Inverse folding.
């Protein structure tokens, strides 16, 4: 007979092994009561959230739709923008008419110089419809602002969105009295950092104050027709030619401009810049996007004074404008002089006109001092561009010297 296997005897001094629990027993035998309570609490919370979620979603208040700035059709076929570019569609398809850039630095105290052009007292009262600032009665202020906006609705029909930037939006519009095309620029009040005073003492955003100083009666700068101050926005009604295009899109449509066309447009831009400096205004954002070309007459107009400030003889230690058009002294040392920086920006604009591209688009520091120009350009044009883009600000020509340059006068130097 086979003998049964012998059971191992426990060693002396060691406790006998404990028998294992049966695996076929209930799961509750292996879980403590605290773990069971946590599981039931989690399941109960999940069931409660699943049941209550639809009811909470139904009870949540729906946001009210934001009203349009002014009532009118979605498109304006009489303007420069395409009818398909509306405020409800893609806002960036239409080329910007008045682009908005970075905000201006705190204005420097203006020097005491006589007003220029038609900047006489009383010239603004006929155009400005500004509503006074906060007064003793907030309800009265809102009522006056509502009446001012209703006045714009009665006089203008809003069209498509022309452009949108960091400082607001620009809409195409039509003046109902005579059908003239205009542009309405809307700037939120919380984005207006600096204010000034018009000749009649009215408090207004600095952009309006500067534009009023330089635009009255000068064809090379966009005209300000009127403006309104509302509780949340400031509206500016600006001139808009029937058929127009900003200089950037004007260049891109042709690849580059021949020297005759570039000279014609550059001369007008230079005259507008000189007019601004003679009025004590520094634009600080000279670039093709801020130059409007009237396709019917060939007139160039300087637009968007949102980065402008008062002209001063001392160096500026803060910058406002487009970084790719800032001079090298600002990048390297943190200061610049207003007129020298303007000449640098004009040199970049002239390069874009005749070459079709930004001269420093592939890296700034690596290309300074090694500017290559196409051989098809005349020596006079190449010389003018190199002088304007001199690394040392003292070697750049003045605005007056630019007007007397041989290329500007179409003089061939043998």
């Amino acid at each position: 007979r086979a003998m049964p296997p012998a059971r191992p005897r426990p060693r002396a001094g060691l406790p006998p092994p404990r028998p294992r629990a049966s695996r076929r027993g209930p799961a509750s035998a292996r879980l403590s009561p605290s773990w069971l309570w946590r599981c039931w609490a989690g399941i109960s919370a999940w069931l409660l959230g699943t049941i209550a979620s639809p009811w909470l979603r139904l009870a949540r208040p729906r946001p009210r739709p934001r009203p349009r700035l002014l009532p009118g059709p979605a498109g304006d076929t009489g303007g420069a923008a395409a009818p398909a570019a509306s405020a409800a569609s893609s806002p960036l398809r239409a080329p910007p008419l008045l682009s908005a850039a970075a905000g201006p630095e705190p204005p420097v105290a203006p020097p005491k110089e006589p007003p220029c052009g038609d900047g006489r007292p009383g010239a603004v009262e006929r155009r400005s419809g500004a509503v006074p600032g906060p007064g003793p009665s907030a309800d009265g202020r809102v009522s006056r602002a509502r009446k001012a906006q209703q006045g714009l609705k009665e006089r203008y029909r809003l069209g498509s969105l022309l452009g949108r930037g960091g400082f607001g939006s620009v809409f195409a519009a039509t003046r109902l009295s005579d059908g003239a095309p205009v542009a309405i620029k809307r700037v939120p009040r919380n984005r207006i950092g600096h204010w000034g005073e018009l000749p009649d003492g009215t408090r207004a955003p600095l952009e309006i104050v500067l534009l009023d100083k330089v635009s009255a009666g000068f064809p090379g700068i966009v005209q300000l027709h009127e403006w309104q101050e509302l509780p949340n926005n400031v509206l500016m009604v600006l001139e808009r030619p029937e058929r127009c295009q900003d200089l950037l899109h004007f260049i891109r449509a042709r690849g580059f401009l021949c020297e005759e066309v570039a000279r014609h447009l550059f001369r007008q831009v230079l005259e507008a810049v000189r007019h601004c400096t003679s009025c004590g205004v520094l634009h600080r954002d000279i670039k093709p996007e801020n130059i409007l070309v009237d396709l019917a007459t060939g007139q160039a107009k300087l637009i968007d004074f949102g980065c402008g400030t008062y002209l001063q003889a001392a160096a500026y230690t803060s910058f406002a404008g487009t970084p790719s058009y800032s001079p090298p002294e600002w990048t390297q040392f943190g200061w610049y002089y207003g007129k020298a920086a303007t000449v640098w920006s004009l040199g970049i604009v002239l390069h874009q006109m005749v070459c079709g591209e930004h001269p420093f688009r592939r890296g700034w520091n690596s290309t300074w001092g090694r500017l290559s120009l196409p051989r098809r350009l005349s020596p006079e044009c190449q010389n003018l561009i190199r002088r304007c883009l001199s690394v040392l600000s003292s070697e750049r020509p003045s605005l007056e010297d630019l007007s007397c340059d041989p290329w500007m006068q179409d003089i061939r130097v043998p």
In short: Residues 64-145 have pLDDT under 50 and may be disordered. The CA atoms of residues 250 and 293 lie 8 Å apart. The radius of gyration is 34 Å. The first helix runs from residue 33 to 59.
